[in-house]
Amino acid sequence: MSKTQRLAALVAGAVMVFGACTPAATTTPTGTPAATDQMTEPPASGTGPETLSGHITLWHSYGSSGGGAESAEVTALNQILDGIRAANPDLTIDAINVPFSDIFTNFETESGTGGGPDMFIAPNDSLGNEARGGYLLDLTGQIDDVLAASSEVSVGGSKVDGVVYMVPESLKAVAMYYDSANVPTPPTTTDELLTFVQGGGKAGVLTRAYFGWGWYSAFGGKIFNDDSSCAADDNSGVADALAYVGSLNDAGAVVDSNYANINDPFIAGNLDLIFNGNWALGDYRTARAGLAVAPFVSGPGGPGRTMTGVDGWYINAAISAEQQTLAVAVAKLLVSAGSQQIMVDVAGHVPANSSVTSSDALVASFTDAIYAGDPRPQSAAFGQYWGPFDQAWDTVVPDDDTAAGGDPTTAVATACSTMEAAIAAQ
Description:
There is one protein chain. The protein is an alpha/beta fold. It has helices at 3-20, 72-87, 100-111, 127-132, 144-148, 152-156, 190-198, 208-211, 213-218, 237-251, 260-268, 281-287, 321-334, 337-347, 361-371, 386-396, 408-424; strands at 32-33, 54-60, 91-97, 119-123, 159-160, 163-164, 167-172, 174-179, 203-206, 254-256, 273-277, 291-294, 298-299, 302-303, 307-315, 350-351, 374-375. The protein is globular and about 60 Å long. The chain starts with a helix and ends with a helix.
């Protein structure tokens, strides 16, 4: 769709919504409604004497982190929603779980024709692309109170080219989970991790462009130069990182791009050490009595810095102005201090709100990992990173253990040239 066609579609969608005097039409995505189990005491509404009324449809992907409708994140969200509904009896909220693999593409498809949900929560993986594509509401001046209470990294991660497009909720990054009952002394370096695996240690490693990010810095590599050109083939660091993960696979670690193939065995007790994000903390805490968290390992190039992302609420630019105002008000309730405290206590989130605290040592460990990580870039160039480097990981460390891995140097050079061609074509 051209920019002119897209603008026409958005305007047409808005006119249709205003003419009908009803919320924007929403087709049902692949997914299931969120569970509505009653939880503990709900958060305060924060609406004062006036309450909200109307109808909001929101999407989330909390069922994708493992555990489905019973996951800790879904449980926490339902508790928050129950509180908001109780405090605002004339407000209807439909919460729909959409698989994480589909949420951005489904949203863009539906918003592009004037539909879609009023709002959805997701990490800022595609914030830059969606903001530049015209899918998101410019929130400048509308959530200043939220931003004033949020950490600097949360505020920065909610902006694209200096403009606010997301209501920040929490911070997320990858660290090392391990079962202290079986791993009394966790590895701290890449050499120690390889020795652990060679000695029969049950380790799992997720690959591809997101989970692989922390390995780059551990081997002295990086993806971008300051001018947004590809730096990954300037030295051997990124290729060495891919080769190292391949050596973990050869030594007996479970190395896979499929999230479930690492997440599920850890929950079941078949793996004792994995690298994953704090979105799974609540579920892992329940499954593994000896659960502990340690920093990402360091390598010959220095500490492994994983990608620090910000989760937050995106507001659909295609809905009516009235619905946008209501969605912003609901988003503020969803990220209030009371709501974020529930996400911290139940799901192990690291809050965007600086006033929300946790005494949980595991949450504290992830907080350290988050602030030691690389903030997720929001440049136009970064939007072209994912596909080429997913392919590089798949080439060097294929999921099929019977397939021979490709040459890391060649795979990285191909990814660089592919990415730079896509950047030039923007």
